[in-house]
Amino acid sequence: MKLAETSALHDALPPISTSTPGLAQVARGGCLPNPFYTDATVFEEEKKRVFAPNWSCIGFGTEVPKAGDAKPVTFLGIPLLLLRDKTGRIRVFQNVCRHRGMILVDEPTNFRGVIRCPYHSWCYSLEGELKTTPHLGGPGRNDHPAVTKSELGLYEVRSTVWMDLVFINLSGDAPDFKTATATLTERWSEFEGQAVYHGGAESSFSLEVACNWKLAIENYCESYHLPWIHPGLNSYSRLEDHYNIIEAGQFSGQGTKVYNPKLDDSGRSFENFKNLAEKWSTCAEYIALYPNVLLGIHKDHFYAILLEPLSHDRTLERVEIYYTSPEMTEAPWLDLRQRNSEMWKGIFIEDIGVVEGMQRGRLAPDFDGGTLSPVMDSATHAFHAWVAGQYDKHVT
């Protein structure tokens, strides 16, 4: 079986750096220029320079819960297959047969035996090994000396799973995931290693927004907009109750010191994570893990938003909510899970008009990217600097 040879996605890139007109302003504390939101050509460059060399999220373990479960995924135009093998390990393959490039799987399914190509019936194991090639050497002859099956396994994409999120590294040469996220896992060390349990159908929803994927991140990173866009949230988690979170080159976001939502008049609440420090009784943190995951960690639940860039001006936001124990996912807690999901969905919907409005605004020819508050927008600037830095890495 062969590891995916996707390094060509970012090989031989033309030299672009932060000294390039437009990107240079980011180094001076400015914003990314308009073409980074409005130009389809720049979006194609981002696939190579921003997504391929880093750990990008493509899905969730809950989508393939049982051995043999498989789900086709298209990420940045690339056909992929999310699969749980016989040992329970989640793997990611390029979703194409090694014979003629036929798509292997068109819809979610469960394979009890092999993955069979619908074109000429070449068959692969759940570990990606090519097992059978019917009539390869002519009618009734299933082998040929010119074809070595052991060299023709599915292309496997480097992948890992963290907190049920499935990450891939298309280039194959990013630092180890644990190394790349060490600062975040240290920050959230009390949650690290604790199991999370998906809340079920009512804890999953998607929103398609007419904006560039970066605007979704920028909006999520800052609390500056709370009083005007989220008045309900701001009524109990005020602007002055929030703080900035910045880890240059990895993530940025915000936190609140007064997390305490009331989902039930009777006082019922979800079970908390175990062995948390006292600060987490009222704190919650909201972090953008670059390039395309938005995370929310609370004493009693965890959510992740996978940003799937569909084009330079369209983004799919896939939201999944997790709880602290199997009991919290059962029927007696259904009403509370529904209210929690409805609360978050309502908040995220309030953001849609803002990010779509900024997308339209970037068509104004005299707008130069904007003016950031050194205090309130520092997490957003950290993200801009990271994006600009991805271009700097590929100077030749």
What is the oligomer described by this structure?
Answer: single chain
Mean pLDDT, all residues: 91
- For the secondary structure, the number of strands is 19
Q: Roughly how many Å apart are the termini?
A: 33 Å
Percent of residues in helical segments? 10-25%
Give the number of helices: 10
Contiguous uncertain segments of 5+ residues:
1-19
Question: Which sequence of SSEs, written as H and E, runs from N to C?
Answer: EHHHEEEEEEEEEEHHEEHHHEEEEEEHH
C-alpha Rg (nearest Å): 23 Å
Gross morphology: globular
The description of the largest β-sheet is: 8 strands, mixed
Strand content: 25-35%
Give the helix/strand class.
Answer: alpha+beta
Describe the structure.
This protein has helices at 24-27, 35-38, 40-51, 177-180, 182-187, 213-221, 226-229, 231-234, 334-361, 378-392, and strands spanning 2-3, 56-60, 69-75, 78-84, 90-94, 109-110, 115-116, 123-124, 130-132, 155-162, 165-169, 197-198, 204-209, 242-247, 251-256, 284-289, 293-297, 301-311, 314-323. With 396 residues, the chain is α+β, with helices and mostly antiparallel strands. Strands 1, 2, 3, 4, 5, 6, 10 and 11 form an 8-stranded mixed sheet that branches. Strands 12, 13, 14, 15, 16, 17, 18 and 19 form an 8-stranded antiparallel sheet that branches. The protein has a 3-stranded antiparallel sheet with strand order 7-8-9, with no helix packed on it. The chain is globular, with a radius of gyration of 23 Å. Mean pLDDT is 91; it is low at 1-19.
